Write the structure tokens for this entry.
Amino acid sequence: MRVYRGLFAASVVLAVGACERTRGLTTSLIGCADEISTGVRPIATSRDRRFLGKVQASTARCRGGDKAAGRRDVSWVDWANYYATGDGSTKAFWPTRNWRGVNGALIDLEYERVELIRFNLFDNSGSFEDYVKGRGDVEGPALKTWTSMRLPPDHPSYSAVGGGGEQICQGALIRGRTLTGICNDIRNPLMGSTGTLFARNVEFETTFPDAGLTEITRNRHGGRLSLMTPDPQVISRKLFTRLQSDSAACADGYGKPGYAKDANCDYQKAPFFNVLAAFWIQFMTHDWFSHLEEGHNTAEYMKVGCAGDAARLGCRPADAMEKAYVADADAPARFTHNGREYLARAPKTFRNTNTAWWDGSQLYGYDERSRTRVKRDPRDPARLQLVPVPGDTAEGDRQGYLPLLQPSDPMNPDWAGQEATGFPDNWTIGMSFYHNVFAREHNQFVDEFRRVAAKAPEQDSGLRDPSNPERVIRYRDVTADELFEAARLVVSAEIAKIHTIEWTTQLLYDEPLFRGMNSNWSGLIAGNNGVADALAAVVNRLGKSSRAKTANQWYSILASGPGIIGLGSQKRGWSISNPDDVNGGVNHFGSPFNFPEEFVTVYRLHPLVPDLIEYREFGNPNAIRNKIPVVETFRGRATGFMHERGLANWALSMGRQRLGLLALQNHPRFLQNLKINRLKSPTQQLDVAALDLIRDRERGVPRFNEFRREYGLRQLAGFDDFINRTGTAEEQARQAKLAATLREVYGQHRCDSTKVITLAQVDTSGNPINDCLGHPNGSMVDNIEDLDTVVGWLAESTRPHGFAISETQFVVFILNASRRLYSDRFFTSSFRPEFYTALGVDWVNNNGPVAMYEARPVNGHTHQPVSPLKRVLLRTIPELKPELDQVVDAFDPWARDRGEYYSVAWKPRPGAESDEAFATPK
Ligand code: HEM
């Protein structure tokens, strides 16, 4: 109730503060008055009463006028139609309306986050029963420690954390990010560490739909599903293949001999997002999770579809792939609570073979084996080893390049010839790029630290050793190992910051998300430190409550005030000797942190990658010199390309080129035909797009409609619901064709309205949802319930403005992107000089050694810091300065004119008119 009042108050302020004087009294203002009189909806107390991103008609009208009110009947969220949530054309004359639109959107998003925290946390590791029942006086969602997060007796650090007694990490184990990720939460040492289990965001009973675990699931899918049904390679060929206007010019992604620039592979392009952004997210996923061991799965093989006469579509029946690792497939335990029976975990579980923390583990390693591949500079072991490449003479090249894997290094034979690093799998020019850039950045920080130390050796570095907390560690005292670990903390936090406020704000290119992401990082009220500090103190107290509502809902809402970064780090009297200070800022919302399987699903972003890179050189950036197939840079060949052509030219090439839209029929050709040498199959080839579907099925991800219902989004009633009725006639015709193909592949059935198909939601009249999805009983309905989730979110053409992803993917991010900050003490209460050094904290806050600001406003925001990746590139590839001076967000195509307010037009900026990429509008 109190949370309800909180959001209610926010809404009333929004409506009242929005009063338009005199003649502006319109329907929209009447809507605002209605909103006040009827109040706002309470936070749902049961799953089937969720918000669904849909507001009352009066609220929609208040925040977006007739346009918003008129689009409430579609399945998609309402906030996308509010004032000022799109480009300049969505702004109203009255600033107050724009204010209501943007802030109304933020309120809707916060509703979603609060409900997601409440209804979508399902831990697989043994804590779920406590989550449901609570422990002692503490409600489940307010629990803070779990026995399943203790180190087991055979763990090398078992004794160090307290063995069989109370486990609490201390001393060397809490100084920085540990290799395997243990002791991030000092009272839950195992949490997020290498080899722990993936969680779920959906009820366990609804996972593994093809196993038909419950009557509801059987009703939903009618026995139509299995691992290979519908055939994944058929889906890939019909629904994923990029259509080509000239297949010879593309050659299945292999382009033309000599990398001739008249090669061409058509792909649907996102005008406001570049190829650097595509590889960035692959670079991130390599930090967060992996299901594979050293780049392979089990030794057992399975066929991967293309059955019957499907080969006529171009797929390969002889392809085969390794089966996925399974951690536990035994029948899960059951328990009852308040008369309802629950599964204690999903029917099968899987291990995250990486650390789940945002800790740069792709660069620094995540276990002893991967750490062997990480080379430190023998002359200064605080630095990473970077070596000169003969012939590379640009300014940044003096910083060097990563050394290569040696035969003595532990590795998958497929990786021979690549640069040495923690996570080397699926290496291409994109991975080579980021690993080299951030290795240089690591050394930039170390070098600056050394410079400061040389100038002021006696000065306090800020660093402390928890084993000897009173000892002041001067700059001169800092050891190479200590500096290496501090640099790792700094680089990891920089990466998290780039992702949160530079990558995501370009991925979701509109004002509400700009504000939302910046508030996640540094608070809605950045700059007003008095208010921020006071709110931070309140938030911390709330986080400690034993009541679920207080601990979680208020916490989530109020944390958007001061921001998540540094939560709990400014407490008066903060002490490294007090575990409650060191750990006090984290909040796991009652469920130990790890990524859910559903998160992996929405990161299967292979369509982002183009087949051919438009290669440029920085002396003449407007000219495309070559078209280099990404597949030619696969594995060790990336390294040769990097050394021959240099970081600066690759940065420019990938910075200027648009990435692929996440849409149907837009997967790279080369990934459908990827050659993988280790495979013991007749073809040694793989359709990675088809494998994406198979892996999700192996891991029991619910299909699209139930996935949406579980996450609190509205279901669709048939494939035609994917057609965006506000699009042009041409777009609608194209989407109608795709809907027909979906129907052809997934089929239809005669529906039976007596069959209830979900417990996650009820229909708009409050009745159970049945097999007919609102169609007449006995009619033929689309098998939309069977749609693979990846196919579904790729088919979503109705999206909020500037969204490179769909709303289904986005809802998964709202929950998990916040959680991976909230759960990590190095982003909250341990974001302190005692761990990062004073220089390190400043470096993260200022995006480098000193703060820098853009000369011009950015989408109306003045005094904008120069964005963090741009700063990293300026330091690590300084020869790019003339190009980067024109760039605001490193993930926006570098030669694009960004316009005034969230324009997504594909138009050259001054000086780039002759850039060949602008010759054709698409
Ligand atoms: C361009 C080069 C890329 C190649 C060659 C590649 C290749 C692959 C392969 C072979 C797999 C299957 C692993 C398995 O389950 O056996 C895979 C999985 C995956 N890929 Fe990619 N990929 C590329 C780019 C990307 C990009 C840009 C993303 C964006 C996020 C991405 C995200 C993923 C994810 C999330 C998985 C599932 C990983 C897991 O199950 O742990 N990949 N990729």
